[in-house]
């Protein structure tokens, strides 16, 4: 291959030797060197115009009632397919986030901030259902003109249950030991799970998750929503990590009486949907030791809500 002292913008000469391997022959003028890299066999050449245009980007535009004069651009990051992009913008996770920022306590409600653009960065499907969504929102504070931190991991609402079992004068709490890859360790936590649909059946989901993770069958009418005791301004949910995740959790209480034999049967029981990768072991601990036995934020929050509701006489 020969670099000759001439330059034509956007033009590249391609040499095709008899061996069939194309050789690029840029015809560029470099003032600082001239060198020769020539194949031993003869080659015929042709010129080809190299495209400098970036690949087309998937985009979508929406108008929000909270800022009708300023449309919002939704853009797909490189690597996000057309199907993933469509699933993202049509998902209940994304629609709920848009609803949240325009709600009575939302970021856009008083006009101090505006949403300019959303970059869809990642989509995880659970079968045919969108499970997780990651995006970056450009929200601008109008007073300073600066962006506020806007990276979002959207997973939607979830439930957890504080199960207290009274047996022979002792109260026990039921925990599940689960593999938690994000933190790289096993965690003792309350039975919990995500809502699988848009119907908002929090209590029903809580009952189902308890049965799947512990084998205990509960009656939905025996469940007490601890988060319902929170002030109405909170939305009746708790947010474990609002700096990066939209997850909102409803915490329920179940209290019942069982035999000592039942406590022994639960201890160490292996449960979970094994075909879904759930490797769960049940642990039963005395309630008065629960707050020191787990680092699970759901459990610690449920203890606080339970004790405060009990103190104020709110529990049935």
How would you explain this protein's 3D organization?
With 316 residues, this protein is α+β, with helices and mostly antiparallel strands. It is built from 6 helices and 17 strands. The model is unreliable at 1-53 (pLDDT under 50). The radius of gyration is 29 Å and the shape is elongated. It has helices spanning 82-90, 92-101, 202-214, 260-266, 290-293, 297-311; strands spanning 11-17, 23-26, 43-49, 59-62, 72-76, 113-126, 129-141, 146-148, 151-154, 158-167, 170-180, 185-189, 192-194, 224-225, 249-257, 270-271, 280-286.
In terms of per-residue confidence, which ranges show pLDDT below 50 for 5 or more consecutive residues? 1-53
Largest sheet: 8 strands, mixed
Query: So what's the overall shape?
Result: elongated
Number of strands: 17
What percentage of residues falls in helices of 4 or more residues? 10-25%
Query: What is the CA–CA distance across the termini?
Result: 87 Å
Question: What is the alpha-carbon Rg in Å?
Answer: 29 Å
Average pLDDT number:
85
* Oligomeric form: single chain
Structural class: alpha+beta
Helix tally equals 6
């Amino acid at each position: 291959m020969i670099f000759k002292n001439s330059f034509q913008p956007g033009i590249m000469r391609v040499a095709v030797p008899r061996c069939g391997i194309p050789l690029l022959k840029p015809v560029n003028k470099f003032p600082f060197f001239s060198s020769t890299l020539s194949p031993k066999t003869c080659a015929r050449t042709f010129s080809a115009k190299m495209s400098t245009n970036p690949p087309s980007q998937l985009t979508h535009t929406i108008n929000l009632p909270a800022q009708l004069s300023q449309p919002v651009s939704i853009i797909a990051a490189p690597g996000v397919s057309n199907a993933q992009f469509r699933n993202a913008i049509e998902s209940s996770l994304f629609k709920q986030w848009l609803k949240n920022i325009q709600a009575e306590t939302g970021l856009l409600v008083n006009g101090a901030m505006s949403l300019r653009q959303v970059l869809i960065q990642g989509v995880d499907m659970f079968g045919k259902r969108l499970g997780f969504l990651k995006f970056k929102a450009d929200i601008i504070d109008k007073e300073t003109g600066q962006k506020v931190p806007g990276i979002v991991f959207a997973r939607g609402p979830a439930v957890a249950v504080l199960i207290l079992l009274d047996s022979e004068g002792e109260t026990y709490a039921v925990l599940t030991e689960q593999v938690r890859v994000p933190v790289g360790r096993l965690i003792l936590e309350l039975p919990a799970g995500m809502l699988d649909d848009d119907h908002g059946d929090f209590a029903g989901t809580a009952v189902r998750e308890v049965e799947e993770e512990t084998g205990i069958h509960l009656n939905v009418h025996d469940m007490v929503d601890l988060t319902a005791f929170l002030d109405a301004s909170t939305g009746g949910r708790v947010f474990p990590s609002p700096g990066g995740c939209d997850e909102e959790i409803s915490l329920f209480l179940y209290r019942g009486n069982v035999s000592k034999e039942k406590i022994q049967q639960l201890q160490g029981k292996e449960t979970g949907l094994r075909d879904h990768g759930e490797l769960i072991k049940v642990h039963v601990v005395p309630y008065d030791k629960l707050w020191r036995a787990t680092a699970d934020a759901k459990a610690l929050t449920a203890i606080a809500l339970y004790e405060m509701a009990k103190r104020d006489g709110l529990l049935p």
